[in-house]
Amino acid sequence: MSLPLLRVAACQAEAVAGDVAGNVATASRLVARAGGEGAGLAVLPELFLPGYDITGLGADTGRDIDAATVESDSRLDPLRAACRDDRVVALVGASVRRQEGRRLSVLLVDDTGAVGVAYDKQHLSGDEHSVFTPGEHGAVVDVGGWPVGLGVCYDGCFPEHARAAAIAGALVYACPAAYVAGGEHRRDLYYRARAIDNGMYVVVAGLVGPCGDRAFSGGSAVLDPEGRVVVQAGEDREAVLVADLDADLVAATRGLHPMLADLEA
Predict the structure, then answer these.
(1) Helices (H) and strands (E) in the chain, counts
(2) Is-catalytic flag, 100?
(3) C or N: which end of the chain has fewer Cβ atoms within 10 Å?
(4) For the chain, what is the mean pLDDT?
(5) Domains and their CATH numbers in the chain
(6) DSSP labels for 96-117?
(7) How confident is the model at residue 2, as a pLDDT?
């Protein structure tokens, strides 16, 4: 594969429930850190902009980012500026209102500062069903020539979800996440399995610390196509993890372990 290396950053931090402006400021700072280390892609946690507080989100409809205004929402201006100034594409979790329902989404802020909704979570977990409508399809986006499949947290528990992204051409599976403390073993096992299942990189960015009525366990990581840890954060502090992804390693791994090709044959 004749692709340049892609330097990615898995960004882990606390989010404050209901404080979109404050969380945008944190996201902007993380993106600037990632850009300062040469990353072209920064992945931030699930529901990072409003904070992962399902009770609060359900009670106060004014806390989400409205899909009708997401492209011009002034609260996102600091994040736009960070992506533009540091030449970083950011993926960040948000709550977005659609005509057909509220979605638990991933926003893509490109390196010109343009913002759009890249993906809506397809597999909702627990009380997320009380607030959100599931997304209807997967997504693969282009970042520096790299096809990047998108998932959100619980999506990564379903082998078929990452497999669909791989079949669609993804070489990396990027997952904003929010794992509640106590689920560390499952969190790590799921994403390592998705990497080795498909011979592709996995980038997972998790919330850490308290938000709303829950505490989150971090564990952000970059995993190689064999499911091995390239870098991983702890469970109790902010982190920006940077790693270089090599498309030739994806090709070599898929050649050695051709499950994806054999499934399609």
Answers:
(1) 7, 15
(2) no
(3) C
(4) 94
(5) 6-264 (3.60.110.10)
(6) EEETTEEEEEEEEE-TTS-EEE
(7) 81
Is 173 a residue whose pLDDT tops 80?
Answer: yes
pLDDT digits (tens, 9 = 90+) for 217-256: 999 999 999 999 999 999 889 999 999 999 999 999 999 9
Phi-psi group of 35: left, alpha or beta (phi > 0 → left; psi -120 to 50 → alpha; rest → beta): alpha
Is 46 annotated in the active site? yes
Query: What SS3 class is residue 128?
Result: helix
Question: Do 139 and 149 form a contact (C-beta atoms < 8 A)?
Answer: yes
Catalytic status, residue 238: no
Alpha-carbon span 45 to 244, nearest angstrom:
20
Q: DSSP E strands: which ranges in the chain? A: 6-12, 41-43, 65-66, 89-98, 101-109, 115-120, 140-143, 146-150, 172-177, 201-206, 208-211, 214-217, 221-223, 229-232, 239-245
One of 46, 83, 128, 211 is an active-site residue; which one? 46
Integer CA distances (angstroms), 44 to 179, 253, 263, in order: 13, 27, 32
Q: Which of 11, 83, 153, 157 is catalytic?
A: 153
d(CA 104, CA 86): 27
